[in-house]
């Protein structure tokens, strides 16, 4: 019921929405959306939920689309950043989200901004993948979820990052050079209509 109500709210705000039971169904939806769009170039912003669907492996192995991979470990960091810049003008962009509200809005907090910038503008089609654990009641709960769950747990995935939350597990609004909470974005409505497809998965996924 929570997913259904959230999906209805997102649709009222002009998002395209698909609700699925698991990551296998999510992959089928994403694959069909990509094939329908027939993009020349595809890129992505890192997301555990998105990766759980297997879509990146599929794109890497499918010769129909040019994948702009800004996370290729074989590249230097400046090379990866350049690819992420190019992703701003990809035809289709796939990523995750930190929180989705039952009111029908999407919320992010990023370090570099390469994940949220293409969502806001550039690619003709955007696909957002979110597990049911990302759904919260409202904007205040979205902010709380980001500060107490998403950001500290993301830091925990990067043991080389030295921030207060790496030790305490709680955000202290720091000024650390390794801070990952630098750029905030919320999407209140989708424009143009259905430019953004939100795939809501009835599983707990990602951070």
TrEMBL record:
Pfam families: LUD_dom (PF02589). Residues 7-201 form the LUD domain. InterPro entries: FTHF_cligase-like_sf, LUD_dom, NagB/RpiA_transferase-like. It comes from the Bacteria. Coiled coil: none annotated. PANTHER family: LUD DOMAIN-CONTAINING PROTEIN, LUD_DOM DOMAIN-CONTAINING PROTEIN. This is Lactate utilization protein.
